[in-house]
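Researcher: Sequence recovery benchmark, item below. Answer with residues only.
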C-alpha cells in the first residue's frame, strides 16, 4: 500500500513537470531531426499523392508507392519542381491543391539529409 501510494505520487510529480500549452501544438519550429522516408515522408505521400500516383493509376506514368519510386522522382528534381510551383500553376502538385509549407520543408530536408529510408 505504501509502495502504491509512492508510485502514484511519483507519477503525478513527473506529470506536472511536462508543461504543455496549446502553443506547443503548433509546429512552427525549424526542423532539427533527421528526416526518414518511413516515418516522415511516406505519410505525406500516402495522404497527398498516392490516390493518383499508385501502381494501378500512375498519373504522369509515375507511381510513388515505394521508397525507390519516390526517391527517384525526388532525386531527379521532378517532385521538388512540382510541389514548389505557385498556386494557380497547372503543374503544381498535388493536383488541385498545395502541400502545407511544413510538408514541403520536410521533403526538402529529406533531400538534404540524403534520402534516408529508415
Ligand atoms: C488528383 C490527382 C493527383 C494528385 C493527388 C497528385 N498528382 Fe501528381 N500528377 C497528376 C497528373 C494527372 C499528372 C500528369 C500531368 C502533369 O504532368 O501535370 C501528374 C504529374 C506529376 C509529376 C510529373 C511527372 C513527370 O514525370 O513529369 C510529378 C513530379 C508529380 N505529379 C508529383 C506529385 C506529388 C509529389 C504529389 C503529392 C504531393 C502528387 N503529384 C499528387 C495527378 C495528381
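Model:
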Amino acid at each position: 500500500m505504501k509502495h502504491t501510494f509512492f508510485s502514484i505520487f511519483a507519477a503525478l510529480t513527473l506529470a506536472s513537470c511536462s508543461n504543455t500549452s496549446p502553443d506547443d501544438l503548433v509546429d512552427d519550429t525549424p526542423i532539427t531531426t533527421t528526416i526518414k522516408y518511413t516515418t516522415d515522408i511516406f505519410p505525406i505521400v500516402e495522404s497527398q499523392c498516392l490516390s493518383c500516383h499508385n501502381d494501378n493509376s500512375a498519373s504522369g506514368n509515375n507511381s510513388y508507392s515505394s521508397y525507390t519510386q519516390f526517391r527517384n522522382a525526388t532525386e531527379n528534381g521532378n517532385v521538388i519542381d512540382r510541389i514548389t510551383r505557385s498556386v494557380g500553376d497547372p503543374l503544381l502538385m498535388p493536383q488541385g491543391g498545395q502541400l502545407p509549407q511544413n510538408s514541403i520543408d520536410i521533403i526538402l530536408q529529406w533531400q538534404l539529409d540524403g534520402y534516408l529510408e529508415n
